[in-house]
Predict the 3D structure of the following.
Amino acid sequence: MATLESLKSRLRDQAQAVSSLRKGLLSNKQYEAGFENFALDLGKRSYDNFIIPQLSRIFQAAESYPKISVLEIGPGPKTVLGQLPPHIRQSIAKYTALEPNKIFATRLERYMGQDSEGGPPFPCLERPADIHIQSFTAEITIDGSQKMSTGDEVYDMILFCHSMYGMKPKSTYLQRALGMLDGDGILIVFHRGESLFVENMVCHRTACFPTGRVSVKNRDHELDCFAMFIAGFEPLHATACSELMAKWRKTCREMGHVDSERPDSLQFSSPEIMVSFTKNALSLPELIAKVPLAEHPVVKNRDARLQQSAARVVPRDISEVQACVRWAIENKCPLTVLSGGHSDHCVRSNVVAIDMAGFREANLIPLGGCLDQKPDYLLVAGCGCRTEDILRKSMEESLIVPLGARPSIGSGLWLQGGIGHMTRQHGLTCDAIVGAVLVTLDTAQVMYVGQVPASYQPPQAKRATNEAELLWALKGGGTSLGIVTHVVFKTFPATMTSVRSWTYVTKSQSDVFDQLSLFEDSIAKKLPRRCSSDLYLQHGGEQLLLGGTFFEHQTNQTKTSTSWPTNDLIAMKTDWHDEDAVGLFNADLYMTSINGGHKPGKTSSFKRCVFLKEIRGKSTVSRLVRAFDSRPTNLCYLHLVHGGGAANDIAANDTAFGCRDWSYACVITAVWPREQDTLCVAAKRWVYRVVKDLLPLSSGIYGADLGPDPRDAVLAQGAFGPNLARLSRLKRALDPFGILVYACPLSQRVIEQKMIMIVTGKSCAGKDFCADIWASVLATHGIAVHVRSISDVTKAEYSRATGADLHQLLHDRTYKEIHRERLTAFFQSQVQWRPQLPEEHFRAVVQEAADVDVLLITGMRDPAPVAEFSHLCPHKKLVEINVTASHVVRHARKRDDGDCEKSSACALDQESWSSRILPDYCPDFIFENSTTGESQVKAFAEKHLVPLLSEARKQLADMIPIVPHFPQPEIEFRHVLNIAQDPRGLRISTSLLQSCVGDWKQIDAIASCEAGGYIFAAPLALQVGIRFVPVRKSGKVPPPTLSAAKGPSHISSPKGGSEETIEMDRNVLSPTESVVVVDDVLATGRTLLAILQLLRQVGIEVENIVILVVAEFPIHRGRAFLRQNGFGLVRIQSLLVFSGI
């Protein structure tokens, strides 16, 4: 799929070849016609999945602004800000727009007056929106008269959303905009393209959306409008114009992609970039004055070459590294660190890169007689060293360090794993780390951990107080926790390695299965640790070619011979030959044979790596063959690195590298000719598609490859095994300012208010599909998330009881269908003698994912799961999302999907039950999933699920202290009302409560009972502009009144305390009104029950009541209590959940 950038280049080249051509500016109507393609269909997905979430994040971070002023440059016919969540739009108090297109400006004025729901997009504007029909220039004026000097008009936010085209140089315009920012204001730029570089400016943050696409109807008129819009001009010469437009249409059709879902449209890749700046964007000279710049930088990675660092500085000593960090902290700017230069996250446009070339030294330090242990030397490597540097130094004393398989790899590999030919014998590279020196990211202090020789301890360095934890983290997750300057390795006796390669041409998929089974059972599993055998799947004419390399490592002291197998598979093409540790880099099949041998500069590549426990299973083989068959070029290959051995000896939680249970590292590598970089999009899509296909069979992801691509955020959830939550917490503590934000995407957020999202719905409504999409959206927000089906627990028990293959039950659809009836019968029989089985299964699923921030559970068919199961995990917030689809859509999915067609008896029974009995409870959310594609599913997550994990909720939770032994001994009291004593408390709680109701225009009143509820209900009523109905103790409300009995408090009333009566005005509400009930706490539910009984006396239907509470204590089962008393259909929303009292 070609990118818009490559299409534009081709169109302009064709126009340049027409000598008589004159170029004209696009008219307003032509611009409008071309623009429509980006606002509809696929183009809209970029807004829903990237632009709106990014803007929401930026605005939510600006909570210090109670009222926000915005200047938007080139908003088009609708401001993109109108799609932000309601609570953000309500914070905008001043809005100014500069729109040069008169048609767009007219439509924008109309839109600002009334949105689709009948109200303005910014309901809290202090004055009417200012919309000016003019462009933004370096000397901008309003209405052609008064200059907008920084003293006259300043803004909290200035936004360029796809509106910088034609502004050259961009730095001039952006520097002008910086002068119009107020204090801590933010300048935001959205740009279509793979990168955006602004000279002499450093960004505050940048983000990318590489999967954006745009489509255009494959009709002449639409293609003419689209081509002119992309080229940026209208051809004017009559004859030349006709010929050129025909060429342009042909080019669009040649470069456009057509898929089965949209056969009448052409699709183009349209990646997006977001860059934000603050007034510190011009602070680069301060850093350059302290740290020298690099000369003639060389970066190997194709994606990294697209990026242009704001500057590439080369610290000469550790004090200059400290200077870089201090500058970044002071100016709130991120940094990247460059050592080997193989990863694209080493370089980001408009971000300063620290080149560690000044630390390219390696030294052996003898231990002498001080330590009676082997090895006799430690090796200290500066983080500018390459793999080859370290091995050459160690070999001077006949020693080695187990490093990766390529000579030019840098410290990013050592600190995040390090898989190579010696892994089976000596373990991962990070396992050999015994010490390190680093500069911290919070204070720029020099620290050292572990065994660091005295001569390498800088004079100002301190031993880290959290030494054990930091060393643990550096061994597998060390690229984002600090700027590491030196690493100390233990060493091993040097080896001479015997090497031999082989190839085999497969005949069919069944032959591939047979040969991989033979390879694994007869060769790989029988090799001693000092031997390994890598395997490659590559192009071999019309057939898949299997190839491999045997490695046998021997020292002078351990020289023995291994009996290597001989069979039809191992048809040796070369004789055995010996290599030392350095020569080994050029000895494997990748370097000698694949794609004609490795020759630098002729190709580009992209790879990701998954860990596999086996390669012989039919499910694995079918996925590997499917990957090979779908390759975008014949240069692509799969590399299966033989692992296990010493790498598996270390427990998963002994180092941050937590993926230990694997036998093969499957490296999926897309390769394409460098002169055909238009293949890049398809190549990357192929890699991620293959990884996604293999994930269910894998035991983890290799984190060393992962970077700022949002697709990597999803993969990072499997990169550290059980250690992700621990590592994420440490990342947040060590990098509070987000200095190294573009390294492996560790979550920057620690969600203390952890969540369980239960995804329910009828068969073929799309529950599993939605759950997976929602998980991917949450992951892109830095949230550790996991998806589990509760039926997997039953399958595991069935497997233990019957001997059925659990792996195939979970992943092989055909095998699962064979066992379906027996599986259903097994579950039903278990329930008969184990009535608590559903609770046991729920506990099991929750415990398996104890460390994740969000657990999505599918497969639950129990009614009211939040009410019935929340007490089992009272420290987690449960929400239910009911996925629905029309009968016609579900029937169509059953017809198209064999798995749906053969729905289990449990599913059929559930449907018949739900069709006979009306539900007596209300799920938290209902999602209509009757459309195809992912767009609406993702939009739902951004609008409803992501806000549930907002930073504001964590801030609110931090305001609620624990008071021990109050009001009675042995009680740990949560002081919820302390929120009101924090200056931010009521503002945050009111905003969050307001966001719980989608449309307050449908609500007539807020009711609350004294006294705690009043504190939160009254400000909310004031904020949303509706009346407040107080509920008080008996005798406090003048007649006529309605009354209800309320049970005693579960903590403050003495044992056996009597009931009391509460009252409300009889005439304040009518039966047809809708009411929101607000309270500070939901525990036993007695107070809320009494309020609901008062509303029932009024005649208000339960469907017209919503309950909002600040804090919920599920251990008391208040939701179940309300449901048992007939109020299950009342929707209940709690901001926070706490265990205990």
